[in-house]
Amino acid sequence: MANLSSPNRMLAFLFLTLVQIQSKVFCYQYKVGDLDAWGTPTSSNPQLYKKWSTHQNLTIGDSLLFLYPPSQDSVIQVTEESFVKCNIKDPILYMNNGNSLFNITSKGQFYFTSGVAGHCQKNQKLHIAVGEGIISENVDSADAAPASAPSYPTVFGNIPVAASTSTPATSTSSQLTSTFQDRVVIIFEMEEVIGARLYCCSNCRNHVALHDDVISKAFQGKSGRAFLFGHALNISVGSKEDRELMTGLHTVADVYCSDCHQVLGWKYERAYEESQKYKEGKFVLEKAKIVRENC
Q1: Helices 173-195 and 7-20 meet at what angle, rounded to 10?
Q2: Taking all residues of the chain, what is their mean pLDDT, rounded to a whole number?
Q3: Which end of the chain is less enclosed by CB atoms within 10 A, N or C?
Q4: What is the pLDDT of residues 1-30, one digit of tens each?
Q5: Angle in degrees, CA 7, 8, 14, rounded to 5
Q6: For the chain, first and last CA: distance in Å?
């Protein structure tokens, strides 16, 4: 057995071990528009997708989920020039299954619009910038488009595992230390993902939801990020009321922890728009009010 008494050798050994069990656990699936399905924005919020994109911190490995009625809409990836001019001819990518997933595997600017004529002109369009140093430029006016805009990578399928950036075993001690610290973070994140199958009330640790019931982690709640669940556990549902949300007026009911009565989020009782019907009977739980652990 190798002598691991040397600190550098021990560090190298641990580093190589951690590299072998490295897993992609930092990626997120973002539902485009949060509470809004993919559709033409309402008159009260015409810049819905522009506002949404400015509040996201997308990285390689993340994915965009577009939800919409397949009989009424679609989503296409286009060049910057086509995005500015709302030209839906010859798209880079065309998706129309109503549950379209776009996986991000490279840095850069990405442009999407509806594939239905007239929808882009009504601001059903999305521009995202991925990667450090990538600036989301203003491309709202036709003057901003270059004469010949380049095509961007088309990625469609399962969420990929990013290429390894591990430092070779011949690296210096300082390089190994830096990479080793990165791998330690990955291990802690992996333990969180694999070991915790429950979401609990942050106040009393009462079980309130199962990880397998998560539909989306990209919703927006009253106090920040929120998750959409198909089912909830050990909660009580309050009185129904009409409430103005990002998508307009909805009938919802606040949900409470059955033990400590902390408000956790709300339940969708009724959606008035056809594109929002998929949320009826489902639960939005605030990330700040729940914790994921073996509680």
Answers
A1: 40
A2: 75
A3: N
A4: 445 555 656 666 565 555 444 444 457 888
A5: 90
A6: 40
Instruction: Count the residues in the chain.
Output: 295
The DSSP output letter for 120 is G
Beta bridge partners of 242: 251
Q: Where are the domains of the chain?
A: 29-144, 198-292
Surface-to-core class of residue 165, CB atoms within 10 Å of its CB (0-12 exposed, 13-18 middle, 19+ buried): exposed
Gap between the Cα atoms of 52 and 138, Å rounded: 15
- Is residue 44 within 8 A of residue 250, CB to CB? The reply is no
Q: What is the CATH number of domain 29-144?
A: 2.60.40.420
Distance, CA of 269 to CA of 253 (rounded, Å): 7
Side chain identity, residue 202? S
Cα(106)–Cα(131) distance, integer angstroms: 8
Q: Which fold has domain 198-292?
A: 2.170.150
